[in-house]
Write a structure and sequence with these properties.
By secondary structure, the chain is an alpha/beta fold. The chain is built from 14 helices and 17 strands. Helices cover 35% and strands 21% of the residues. The structure holds 6-O-phosphono-beta-D-glucopyranose.
Length: 480
């Protein structure tokens, strides 16, 4: 792996939504904490016809809107690091001007590419031609990286033409979340879970990523994508891989990604009857009326805004254990959580006393609540006639309470820092992303074969009733 700290950062899509909401605030927060190399200069580029001054103004407004005031300490210093160069990615000549603006880095350059998929190839070509793809350059790629395996290979090939894999940083922002990294701490820095973490002791796993938002302003992108490609292909499959993988030899890019990709390769092709898709209709969330998807879109559409899948991992550890995956827009509340449902004790000594055991359950709250709750059986205090009453009680850790002090950070802070400094552990390798697409393509092929149409669900509900039935067929209830 090429080790250098970048003293130049080049942001493509610098005036876009991601930049405004996430990238500029993250960079400013890193700078305020002294985590950016003091030499760093940041060049923004996009189509908009701005100059340095205009871009700094744009950045200032973004920071005031999206970065809490207590994290904006070094804003003036940060704004001084910014400059801007307009670019038409389809015009090869405009890359020369960009290269001049970037200048010669003392140590290295990091590029963050967040552009429309159609601009990927011309951009890579332009970077190559203008000398912006040398040995001391690494590139971060934001989604969407294709819409299926074939198109993702085209993008991966185009990037590979200019950059070796050890300088390519594919972003899945879920990996930048502290609570997602905490999954690794929970599994591999504690002794007690690993011996139980397998089919002998785990009945099933649930992974839910629920959102209250609807289409937002992403009409064109979302309607072409749908929930499966937008959320399952990347975020949910990454969460699944982290939950299911074998212990890596060490916490480094090669070891961690080697283990994740084995899980992705072991995913069994999901049959259509193990999947449910839905699309929201008008309803209410938190007492507010919200329109249906078709109304927001302004036309009829067959795109799914909800998907539930019963997935299986065909390896020794997970044989026969269903992984229930679920994501949707306009669900009752925003929550990302992982539920590990353990099996019941093999024999209950309390049975004769009429007391029932409830199997243990581990709930890992990723967002917005960051907590870990393990349900344990306990004796109900008191002089019960049978001598024993049992009840399930929570052993709960609220992460912000356990770690009073550290800030809640934006996932992109971690990822930008790692891109700048050259740590690929939290970035997705080519074989991972291609294994993810392969599995997703097979799901979509099943839908097409069975002419599956998304079932309507009312905004503010937990999706179509078929999703409940999918779990109930195995005697499982979704955790809500
Ligand atoms: C993005 C999806 O990758 O993740 C969006 O494109 C989704 O549709 C978002 O809203 C969710 O991210 P987070 O961090 O808010 O859970």
């Amino acid at each position: 792996m090429t080790k250098f700290t970048s003293d130049r950062l080049l942001l493509f899509g610098a005036t876009g939504d991601l930049s405004r909401r996430m990238l500029l605030p993250s960079l400013c927060a890193l700078d305020a904490e002294g985590l950016l190399d003091p030499r760093i200069e940041i060049v923004g580029t996009a189509r908009s016809d701005l100059d340095d001054f205009g871009f700094r103004n744009f950045a200032r407004e973004s920071l005031e809107q999206f970065l809490p005031a207590n994290r904006r300490g070094g804003m003036a210093q940060f704004l001084n690091r910014l400059s801007y160069q307009p670019l038409d990615a389809n015009d090869i000549d405009s890359f020369q001007a960009l290269a001049q603006k970037v200048g010669t880095p003392k140590e290295g350059l990091s590029i963050f590419l967040s552009t429309a998929p159609s601009l990927f190839e011309p951009t890579i070509h332009g970077l190559e031609k203008s000398g912006l793809a040398g040995k001391n350059v690494r590139i971060g790629l934001e989604k969407p990286l294709g819409v299926d395996l074939t198109s993702s290979k085209v993008i991966n090939d185009a990037v590979a033409h200019a950059f070796p894999e050890d300088r390519i940083y594919r972003i899945d922002h879920y990996l930048g979340k502290e609570t997602v990294q905490n999954l690794l701490a929970l599994r591999f820095a504690n002794l007690m879970f690993e011996p139980l973490w397998n089919a002998a002791h785990i009945d099933h796993v649930q992974i839910t990523v629920a959102e209250t938002v609807g289409l937002e302003s992403r009409v064109a992108y979302y309607d072409d994508s749908g929930a499966l490609r937008d959320m399952v292909q990347n975020h949910i499959l990454q969460l699944l891989a982290l939950v299911a993988m074998e212990p890596p030899v060490s916490y480094d890019a090669t070891s961690v990604r080697n283990e994740k990709v084995k899980v992705l390769h072991s995913l069994r092709k999901a049959v259509a009857s193990d999947t449910v898709t839905g699309q929201y209709r008008a309803g209410a969330i938190g007492g507010q009326a919200v329109p249906g998807y078709d109304d927001e879109l302004g036309k009829d559409s067959g795109t799914e805004t909800f998907v539930a899948i019963k997935a299986y991992i065909d390896n020794w550890r997970w044989q026969g254990v269903p992984f229930y995956l679920r994501t949707g827009k306009r669900l009752p509340r925003r929550t990302t959580e992982i539920v590990v449902q353990f099996r019941d004790v093999p024999h209950s000594i309390f049975h004769g006393r009429g007391a029932k055991t409830v199997p243990n359950r581990l709930v890992i709250g990723i967002q917005p609540e960051e907590n870990i709750t393990l349900s344990l059986m306990a004796k109900v205090p008191g002089l019960d006639r049978n001598g024993f009453g049992l009840r399930s009680v929570p052993l709960a850790i609220t992460m912000p309470d356990a770690f009073a002090g550290p800030q809640r950070r934006i996932a992109y802070e971690r990822l930008l820092l790692d891109l700048i400094e050259g740590d690929q552990t939290l970035f997705v390798r080519r074989d991972e992303v291609e294994a993810q697409w392969e599995w997703i393509d097979a799901v979509r092929a099943g839908w097409e074969e069975h002419e599956l149409e998304p079932k309507p669900y009312t905004a503010g509900s937990w999706g179509p009733s078929a999703a409940i039935a999918l779990a109930e067929r195995n005697g499982v209830t979704w955790h809500e």
